[in-house]
Amino acid sequence: MPDHRSRPAKAALITGVSAGRTRPDQIRGGNHGLTPEQVASSQRERVLAAMRELVAGRGYQDVPVTEVIRHAGVSRKTFYELWSGKEECFVAVYEREMKRLLAPTLQAFEGSEPWTDRLRTALGVLLGALAADGAAARICFVEVLAAGPLALERRRAALTGLDPLFASPDSASAGGATGDSDAAAGPRSRALTAGAVGYLAETLHREVAAGRIEQLPALRSDLMRTLTLPFARPADPTPDDAGESAFLAAYGEIAADLLGRVSAAIATDDDPAARVRAGVAALLDFCAAEPDRARACFVEALSAGPTARERRSETSRRLSDLFAQPLRELRPSDRIAEVSAIALVGGFHELAYDPIDRRAPARLPSVETIVAVARLAAA
């Protein structure tokens, strides 16, 4: 009589996956209640996550499709239903990562401040994002170069997303410094833009390939000197006195640093209320850690001259725009979100002005005190 007490181990729950090797997010067979579209979406996301993790850790050339399949917990048939091959799958990862990096970078570039100040802010956001996510840095600026012709084509297209940083109104007539006509300024500007984007991409490739990812934010000053040089032109005389001009030169660096820190704190995957609190915490941390720079930004700018006051107002508006992003998820309309953001920044100015003026970080208000102005707790 056959012995039924000892049976072979049950086969894999998912075709193509060894028993005991299922992923936590893997959909098990049977009646799971999901639509075919939901199943396909889950499979696609698992494959993309596996490709991202493996390529960032080992390099594109050393990651076979079989390893991606095993790591994602899908079958070979499923993989090739989604993509024609390894390179196409990698390109999907690359384009997603580039889009995620470029969105906050371009948003940080928006505003009415001088081009150099907006560029400084945008570079700070980009370099900070890369330093915080080594996998994205390697995929976007190293491994894409080794992935094949399709990846190189998509890389060329993706890098044009950085063009707006160097096609500013300030640079559009840069040719005038050499006596070129206005008609020639457009083509010259496009050539300079391509050169600037290429230099930035090459520098990032070199630093990431060398393993200096965490040190990327320290490159901002050097990059600014190099990237702005081709666009330089003689400045027209201004009525500003020497004191205000000197102040504005320092203010641009301070404001860019501040906005970059707040932007990075808000640009997370946390719930919107947590993102608002993180942004306020970054704002207060800046004031506590950099009392002299905070005083210049929020106090001295009021008395340095009319242009300095305008720049301070612009910085406040940019802060409001940053906080309005998560608040839109908490408010019934965009207009109410914008009013809440303005109230939050205005409350910060009111409550933090005296401690900043006196360089007394210990007297700064708490995060909860600031967010209460925008009634975040009741959202």
Question: Briefly, what is this?
Answer:
The protein has 379 residues and is mainly α.
Structure, described:
The chain is mainly alpha-helical. The chain has three domains: 13-82, no CATH class; 97-170 and 184-230, Tetracycline Repressor, domain 2 (Orthogonal Bundle); 243-379, Tetracycline Repressor, domain 2 (Orthogonal Bundle). 64% of the residues lie in helices and 0% in strands. It has 16 helices and no strands. Helix 5 (115-132) packs parallel to helix 11 (242-266), helix 12 (272-289) runs antiparallel to helix 14 and helix 13 crosses helix 15. The radius of gyration is 26 Å and the shape is globular.
What layout of secondary structure does this protein have?
Elements: H1 36-58, H2 65-72, H3 76-82, H4 86-109, H5 115-132, H6 134-141, H7 149-159, H8 169-172, H9 182-209, H10 220-228, H11 242-266, H12 272-289, H13 291-298, H14 306-327, H15 334-357, H16 367-373
Q: What percentage of the residues does DSSP assign to strands (E)?
A: under 5%
CATH architectural group of the largest domain: Orthogonal Bundle
Give the number of DSSP strands.
0
Q: Could you give a short account of the major beta sheet? A: none
Averaged pLDDT: 80
How much helix, percentage-wise, in residues? 55-70%
Radius of gyration, in angstroms, nearest whole number:
26 Å
Instruction: Quickly name the level 1 CATH class of the largest domain.
Output: Mainly Alpha
CATH topology of the largest domain: the name is Tetracycline Repressor, domain 2
CATH superfamily of the largest domain: Tetracycline Repressor, domain 2
- The dominant shape is globular
Spell out the helices and strands N to C: HHHHHHHHHHHHHHHH
Count of domain modules: 3
Structural class: mainly alpha
- Number of helical stretches of at least 4 residues: 16
Low-pLDDT windows of residues = 1-22, 171-188, 236-240
What is the straight-line distance between the termini? 70 Å
